[in-house]
Amino acid sequence: MSASNQPADGRPEVSSEDSPGVRPNWEKTLTATTAEETHNLGVRLAGVLEAGDLLVLSGELGAGKTTFTQGLGEGLGVRSGVISPTFVLVRIHPNLPDGPRPGGPDLVHVDAYRLGSAAEIDDIDLENTLDSSVTVVEWGHDRVEHLSESRLEIDLHRAIGLGAGGGDASTPGGTTEGTALDFDNEDTDEPRTIVMRGYGPRWATVPEPVATLEGTF
Questions:
Q1: H-helix or E-strand containing 138?
Q2: 61 falls in which pLDDT band (50, 70, 90)?
Q3: Which residue did the predictor score with more confidence, 114 or 4?
Q4: Superfamily of domain 2-8+33-211
Q5: pTM
């Protein structure tokens, strides 16, 4: 996995993916060459996540959103079986007392693709679990920013931009069954570009597991 840093300061303009009027504290771009690298990045990042953390994932079909979230779940030590919550909106994976982080936060996995506004996000009462969990929201851009003053935005991009059977960035992805990685079977070695941005005081600097990431692991 290769990485590059792009400080937010001095950029000529705010990316179209940034929230209006808000600049990230930092931006880091990684290249994952396999599904395992994407999964391992999630495991690695989970080591610094705490209850109350909010992650916003974006990416087209097959980009690896569920693969990444499965890695987070493994690193957090929550109940296995992380799949896309597309049709149920929210899945809660409780922390396991005999896992690697007993007493740690639960994982709340949300798919906001079918939710059209921040008001609809409020209707599913994420505030009730936010303080005790790590909350991961797929398709949450412009929908969940009001939930916390701090967040990590993680964008995953396929090189060819298409999933199995077609589809594009407007199609909800990650509808895998069981715990299979959500990369297409024939393109697990296709590189994925992963762009991470940190907002708010919680993410004033790049988290150590990502900041020190160099090469392939």
A1: strand 133-138
A2: confident
A3: 114
A4: P-loop containing nucleotide triphosphate hydrolases (3.40.50.300)
A5: 0.79
